[in-house]
Amino acid sequence: MSPPSPQRFLTGITTTGTPHLGNFVGSIRPSVAASRLPGVQSFYFLADYHALIKCDDAARIQRSTLEIAASWLAAGLDPERVMFYRQSDIPEIPELTWLLTCVTGKGQLNRAHAYKAAVDKNETAGHDPDADVSAGLFMYPVLMGADILMFKAHKVPVGRDQIQHIEMARDMAQRFNHLYGDHFVLPEAAIEESVALLPGLDGRKMSKSYDNTIPLFTPPDQLRKLIAGIVTDSRAPGEAKEVEGSALFQIYQAFADAPETAALRQAYADGIAWGDAKQRLFERIDQEVAPMRERYHALISDPGEIESLLQAGAEKARAVATPFLRELRQAVGLRSLSTLPAVAQKSKSSKSTAPSFKQYRENDGKFYFKLLDADARLLLQSHGFDSPREAALTVSMLQKEGAAALAGLQDKLVAAPDRLAVELALQFFSSMKT
Ligand code: TRP
């Protein structure tokens, strides 16, 4: 028995900003952990084509690509063990995006959350529904589908806000497979239940767009300052405090183990001062981040080294993507013409170089035709016609309409045993006309 094939995990991070604690807890840390599981093959990439959808600051995209790559590596990603690459180094991805675009309903894209939110916002403001909406935003889910389907990922670790995108990728895969045969694996979202969305400084989800983030590798004194700014209530030292709804507690929980979390819960009940709770949070985060911070700065200071890692990663990824795309192109009909009438090539050695119709009269006085391939092999044989004109009309119909005409001519033809050869020969005639 062959060993079970590995589960493939794949995820990307959009390169528009500096990684923050929310990215670390929600994406970087779990992806590094998954990459170390036995029987798992991981594909992690920098989604810089996606970055173009939200960001037109070229320098920022470049800088963010470096920072996110360095963060992943500093967090322990082993590029020997995983496929680690930059999306835009894989030209097969935009090419696959087009193939998927053609099997994706426009109506389905109309219903994608991010696009719909933009439209709703415009409508509420009394603007044109598509005001300031780029076609890139509209196509976002298809590009993401290409990322995922290209590498036949089984599991895609993402935040809840991305579940719809994974479902859309599944739909694209299903539709394509239905039309062209079984090429794609149907992916599933892998939602880490234990990783709640990390709150930011103001208690809302930590996110660049709310400007409430704590950068992952900010220097320690800056980290301390930012933590001091996390919203709390006004309870005085000695007063019992609520863990429910406490951003500080939730962030602590994302870094601490169960006994540490229990200890802080108890300290809340015992009335710990907010200042002391913040000091504990600072120490706990710094304990985990400090060793990575050092590696991060070493990595960042050598962009050329990261560039060559990414180049090596792209080479590995393309070793998968290139042949797969070749298969997909073949499946949809983007094919080399030299594979077409194989007969026409083979026949270099024989007399004729193409299939041909022969018309003739038999001793029974009737008019016949036959279709021969380039090697003079009989492909089709007609019954007898009363006039040469009838036979000629039938031949020209076959030449013009190709295999489509066969069905209507059944009673005029002797059954063709090699249907494919007949179709190829007929295709030859219609191609001569264009
Ligand atoms: N859309 C994802 C995000 O904003 C990033 C992303 C791009 C991605 N392509 C992907 C995630 C493929 C998982 C799989 O977070």
Features:
alpha/beta; Tyrosyl-Transfer RNA Synthetase; Rossmann fold; 434 residues; three-stranded parallel beta sheet; four-stranded antiparallel beta sheet; Double Stranded RNA Binding Domain; binds tryptophan; single chain
**Strand arrangement in the largest pleated sheet:** 6-7-8-9
Largest sheet: 4 strands, antiparallel
Helix content: 40-55%
DSSP strand (E) fraction? Answer: 5-15%
Using the coordinates above, name the CATH class of the largest domain.
Alpha Beta
Q: Assign an overall shape.
A: elongated
The protein's oligomeric status is single chain
Low-confidence stretches: none
- Which structural class do the helices and strands define? alpha/beta
Find the CATH topology of the largest domain.
Rossmann fold
CATH architecture of the largest domain: 3-Layer(aba) Sandwich
What is this structure's SSE topology?
Blueprint: E1 7-14, H1 21-35, E2 40-47, H2 48-54, H3 58-74, E3 83-86, H4 92-101, H5 106-110, H6 113-124, H7 135-150, E4 155-157, H8 163-180, E5 188-190, H9 220-228, H10 247-255, H11 258-269, H12 274-300, H13 303-332, H14 342-346, E6 356-361, E7 367-372, E8 378-382, H15 388-401, E9 413-414, H16 419-433
Parallel strand pairs: 1-2, 2-3, 4-5
Antiparallel strand pairs: 6-7, 7-8, 8-9
Tryptophan (TRP) binds next to β1 and α7.
